[in-house]
Amino acid sequence: MVDSSRRISRREMLQLLGVGGIVLVSGGAAVLRAQTLTLPQASDLDAWLQSELASADLSGIATAWRERHPEESSRESLTHQILAGRRKQETLEAYLKRIIAADYRAGKAELLDGWYLSPTEARLAALASGSKG
Amino acid sequence: MIIDARQLPVGSQLKAKLCIIGGGMAGIAIARELMDAGGDILILESGGEAQNADIQALYNGRGSMTDPDGRVRDMTTYLPSSRIRAFGGSGHVWGGKCGPLDPSDFEARDWIPGSGWPFDRSHLDPFYDRACKHLDLPSFRRDLISGDASRPAFKVGDGSEFETVPRFHSKVSGVQNKEKFDAYRYSTTSSPRVTVCLHANVTQVQMTSDGRAVKSLEVRTMDGRTHSAVADHYVLATGGMENARVLMLSNQTLPKGVGNDRDLVGRYFCGHLNASLDEGDKGKTTGIAIPSLASSFDLYTTGDINKVWGIWHATTRMQRKYRVPNSWIAFQPRWYDRTPSEQGVLRLANATSKPVAGGTSDFFPFRIMAEDLPNAASRLTLDTGARDALGQARLALDWRLSEGQYDGMQRTVARLAASISANGGARVRWPLTREKTLTQLSPARHHVGTTRMHTDRARGVVDEHCRVHGVANLHIAGSSVFPTSGIVNPTLTLIALAVRLSDRLRPSLRRSA
Questions:
Q1: Is the ipTM of this complex over 0.85?
Q2: What is residue A117's three-state secondary structure?
Q3: Interchain CB contact of B375 with A (< 8 Å)
Q4: Strand B41-44 to B13-21 pairing
Q5: Which among B24, B295, B474, B507 would be 20 to 30 A from B286, CA to CA?
Q6: What is the 3-state secondary structure (H, E, C) of B462-493?
Q7: What residues form DSSP beta bridges with B41?
Q8: Number of alpha helices (DSSP H) and beta strands (DSSP E) in chain A
Q9: DSSP B318-333
Q10: Which residue of chain B is at minimal alpha-carbon distance from A6?
């Protein structure tokens, strides 16, 4: 029933954003652990960022992400978080597409600089906009 | 034939088989349907052929809108500015946008108290088809959105939560095409059976002593003449606000007014409110960044991507699953140079979504509207301390927005973002805070619910046939009878209901032929 005295809570919003249960988006490093990991491969990510996003202005999103997730302020941390679930033999493009879709399906989208974006996209924006080495 | 009440001898009595109070879109539709039925039809119109400031001032009143956080917005100018008192009614300023209510709008939804029509959408479909003919439109088909099979509608996710809904623009509108609008409003005036009496203000619906039937109408002019009108059947068609006012003012026999023994007249006022932020290239705009996923898709309701807005609405399944009201998201072509942030997100989305070479990729501003929810406290009353030029009490509008409406809007945007982004389809921008949303809501000129329809006299002013409960010969036409507002401009639906009402009245006109 639509209750006229009730406001939507952050928890309810997270439920709406996802298909499953509640996902805590501020958990940081613990979020994306999987058994199929390979070591992070930063070199092709750097090349991809240079090729695809070098000229993109994503600074507002990057700033919002850093403010909300100060534990991910370094390039190493961001890179690790992005690549932590990559499978062997999986191309970077295929991996990013898969993990971003999974972010959305799992209800991990966050409102950043007015945009509903997945954490992976926000981390890519933070890397592309320059983070402390 | 057109006559002028100011030129009739004082105390004239006008007679007809059917008297339609109000020469707007609904009243004219009924006359068009019935002008060949055999009985004489009289249309009483307060205004003249053109708009006039003194006559329009009869619509002045007091108004306020209270949001869920208790902020009160002055809506005084809304009363005269959202409707037109002239022959053709608000059709003079109507933009022409048409669409049928969605099937879910007719359902009794347990999460929306007061929802539910006495019939379902399929019952109204044949009348929608006939309404389309009045408005010179093709019939609405649910299987064809754009009219161009080579450009399928853009799909949101798997299509289970949002779908494209059709909208057409009628040329029978004072804004779209004055000639076609004039052809519509004058279409009955050459009929020997139809008399349009201009400058004729109905100031009292006079009842029989038992209050069970209309006996006659008191008709007054701005220059002080008083006439009367007598008919076998009466249709009140003065608009979503004025219908309630005429009933409440008609209190000579029934102290609370006609049809108001349960204190329902004027209550459940609903409108349509849009939320958006439109900062263009100077800031942030609500909208959607669509990467080039397809070489040919159509966001729009016609094949022309640059001219017509596209509409998505929440499916019945989505509404039921998340217990939200119906809602609508309308796109428009971008009117400004893309901002760096919009370009940046498009780059990001294209880079991660395997774009199609040559596909359409752009940022599309959008606005959203959630269904206004039925609320007995949201109401029109008579302001007995303020009188118009005819000495009649003016209206006071106390429009109450509910948390459910705001909540539904937020939930819908969140679901849209999740649904459309999961397959890489697009990215949603919604930079509106709660305060900004509520303070910038933009009201449309739609007035719904003040003489709502229900089979139960305790819950509705009119019955399922649009007849005023307890009054044998008085029906109501217009959006005031809608039990719920839906999310589409009301004109097509109010004309469909007028056509349906005409079928009910036709036999009684035939008998008099």
A1: no
A2: strand
A3: yes
A4: parallel
A5: B295
A6: ECCCCEECCCCCEEECCHHHCCCCCCCCCHHH
A7: B18, B194
A8: 6, 2
A9: HHHHHT---EEEEE--
A10: B403
Contact B424 A8 (CB under 8 A): no
- Decide: residue B491, CB within 10 A, 0-12 exposed, 13-18 middle, 19+ buried: buried
Residues in chain B: 513
Show pLDDT as tens, one digit a residue, over chain B (513 residues).
999 999 999 999 999 999 999 999 999 999 999 999 999 999 999 999 999 999 999 999 999 999 999 999 999 999 999 999 999 999 999 989 898 999 999 999 999 999 999 999 999 999 999 999 999 998 886 555 545 555 566 677 778 888 887 778 899 999 989 999 999 999 999 999 999 999 999 999 999 999 999 999 999 999 999 999 999 999 999 999 999 999 999 999 999 999 999 999 999 999 999 999 989 988 899 999 988 755 445 555 443 444 445 778 899 999 999 999 999 898 877 889 999 999 999 999 988 876 666 666 889 899 998 899 999 999 999 999 999 999 999 999 999 999 988 999 999 999 999 888 877 678 999 999 999 999 989 999 999 999 999 999 999 999 999 999 999 999 999 999 999 999 999 999 999 999 999 999 999 998 654
Tokens of B376: 């007995």
Q: Which residue has the tokens 């929608």?
A: B128
Taking the CB of residue B498, how many other CB atoms lie within 10 A of it?
29
Q: Which residues of A touch B284 (CB under 8 A)?
A: 113-114
pLDDT in tens, A81-105: 999 988 888 899 999 999 998 998 8
Question: DSSP assignment of B367-393, as one string?
Answer: EEEEPPPP-TTSEEEEEEEEE-TTSPE
> Which residue on chain B is closest to A8 by alpha carbon?
B407
CA distance A83 to chain B (A): 14
Residue type, B275: A
Phi-psi region of A111 (alpha: psi -120 to 50; beta: other; left: phi over 0): beta
Choose the closest CB to A96 out of B343, B352, B410: B352
How far does the CA of residue A100 sit from the closest CA of chain B (Å)?
7
Cβ of B352 within 8 Å of Cβ of A105? The answer is no
| Interface touch A17/B423, C-beta < 8 Å | no
Indicate left, alpha or beta for B163 from its phi (over 0: left) and psi (-120 to 50: alpha).
beta
**Interchain pair A1, B111: CB under 8 A:** yes
Are B168 and B310 in contact by the 8 Å Cβ rule? The answer is no
A51: tokens are 């090729």
Strand, helix or coil at B197? strand
8 Å CB contact of A7 and B348:
no
Long-range contacts, stretch B295-298, CB < 8 angstroms, 24+ apart: B295/B356, B295/B357, B295/B358, B295/B359, B295/B360, B296/B150, B296/B151, B296/B152, B296/B360, B297/B151, B297/B152, B297/B153, B297/B154, B297/B360, B298/B145, B298/B146, B298/B148, B298/B151, B298/B152, B298/B153, B298/B154
Residue contact A101–B424, C-beta within 8 A = yes
Q: Is B160 within 8 Å of chain A by CB? A: no
Give the distance from residue A104's alpha carbon to the nearest chain B alpha carbon, in angstroms.
Answer: 5
**Closest residue, chain A, to B289 (C-alpha):** A115
CB of B109 less than 8 A from some CB of A:
no
Q: What is the residue whose two structure tokens read 């010179």?
A: B136
Across the interface, whether the CB atoms of A60 and B341 are under 8 A apart is answered: yes
